[in-house]
Design goal:
The complex is a heterodimer of chains A (about 110) and B (about 110). Chain A contains no helices and twelve strands. By secondary structure, chain A is mostly beta strands. Chain B has about 110 residues and is mostly beta strands. Chain B contains no helices and eleven strands. In chain B, the strands form two sheets. In chain B, strands 2, 4, 5, 6, 9, 10 and 11 form a seven-stranded mixed β-sheet that branches. A four-stranded antiparallel β-sheet of chain B has the order 1-3-8-7, with no helix packed on it. Classes of the chains: A mainly beta (about 110), B mainly beta (about 110).
């Protein structure tokens, strides 16, 4: 069975600091990859997704992620975080061509200090 | 446009009782998925329905069941509740039943089992 690991459970940064959240998955076949974000009191929202093509994917609010197939990784980055980026971030994987069964990581709580 | 709506938003049950959670997908979406999110963990896949047929089932006991109605709304039923069933239950809808595209999540139904 596929699994997703997010190694950072809680990250605390000051505004303007750079962010990188790690995500590794275990499935060896073709996958589609996602980052979801959950702002306080809000529902899960899609931040960005990778299906194929350029492994560097750009999402909303200045976030980007890089798919490195050889490392089974899909790390999330942002050059300069803002206080409004405080949220929980989830990496998720789905096997390409399968039914819509997302496997989520355990999440990373990001706190940005003003 | 209305997003994914779920009801009730909060509910408290006692062990052994039964619960029914409801979900209305975004208009035009034909696929509904259910996820369980236990505190401190990422969402776990329970069921996916597309065009009123079950397309996927996660690793949950038979006490969990679901169905999708002709208007594409869905219900999740949990029988013989256990303390461990306390969680946020998320519904997600999408246009199609396959892995491409975006899942849109509702705000969830928070179930507490005493």
């Amino acid at each position: 069975a596929q699994s997703v690991s997010q190694h950072n459970h809680h990250v605390i940064l000051s505004e303007a600091a750079s962010l990188e959240l790690g995500c590794n998955y275990s499935y060896g076949g073709t996958v589609n990859l996602f980052w979801y974000v959950q702002y306080p009191g809000q529902h899960l929202q899609l931040l960005l997704k990778y299906f194929s093509g350029d492994p560097l994917v750009k999402g909303i609010k200045g976030f980007e992620a890089e798919f490195i197939k050889s490392k089974f990784s899909f790390n999330l980055r942002k050059p300069s975080v803002q206080w409004s980026d405080t949220a929980e971030y989830f990496c998720a994987v789905i096997r390409s061509g399968s039914a819509r069964q997302l496997t989520f990581g355990s999440g990373t709580q990001l706190t940005v200090l003003p | 446009d209305a997003g994914v709506t779920q009801s009730p938003t909060h509910l408290i049950k006692t062990r052994g009782q039964q619960v029914t959670l409801r979900c209305s997908p975004i208009s035009g979406h034909k696929s509904v998925s259910w996820y369980q999110q236990v505190l401190g963990q990422g969402p776990q896949f329970i069921f996916q329905y597309y065009e009123k047929e079950e397309r996927g089932r996660g690793n949950f006991p038979d006490r969990f069941s679901a169905r999708q109605f002709p208007n594409y709304s869905s219900e999740l039923n949990v029988n013989a509740l256990l303390l461990g069933d306390s969680a946020l239950y998320l519904c997600a809808s999408s246009l199609s039943g396959w892995s491409t595209g975006e899942l849109f999540f509702g705000e969830g139904s928070r179930l507490t089992v005493l």
